[in-house]
Amino acid sequence: MKREKKKLTKTQQKALGISAIAIAVIASALIIWLVGVPLIKFASQPEKFRVWVAAHGIGGRAAYIGMVILQVIIAVLPGEPFEIAAGYAFGAVEGTILCIISCTLGSMAVFLLVRRYGMRLVEVFFSGEKLRSVHFLKTSRKRDILFLLIFMIPGTPKDLLCYFAGLTDVSIPVWLMICSLGRIPSIITSTVGGDALGTKNYWFAVIVFAVTLAISAVGLLIYDRICGRHKVEDKTEKT
Known about the structure:
The protein has 12 helices and no strands. With about 240 residues, the protein is mostly helical. The chain has one domain. The relative contact order is 0.11.
């Protein structure tokens, strides 16, 4: 005779869910403190990073890819230091290629993890308010195009978009195209700037970073406009 599995009550399910989220938050905080912060410090010292990479050859490149994948998964870690370090250590072309590969793998990992664990995982990193700000991407008829366009604008919250994409029914091939092509503009500007620093072309580096900052500021304004417009449209449809 098989024993019937004891069903959890709603209170027990809620307690289990809260416990799982609490454990995930604590684990994420520990990873950020013990791994993430040292990685950012390391990537923020491009000269030391370049020496380390040169000494480790292929292993150094593999380690860099692993660092960036971890950065994408732990959404609160900034990606710019890693992109600039790639340009400084590997040069503009190789740095860009490594960044695109790394970010694509990280974005796919996040997408698949969210598909597996759902909202419980997303809420570890993002508030309900932030998720509501991009909710229009779940219902818009032009969702895939909007995802790509927003991804291509430097300065937009790509980590939020990666996690939110897993909550939609966007297909894996389409998401692969979006997260690989969409990151190219922002990655190129960072790696080109890092390469300029590495070759001691400081004036060019200043120009690149100034232009990038200006584009990012404009990009954020466009992103806010898009989110605001769709928020108004959603309210109008509900009324």
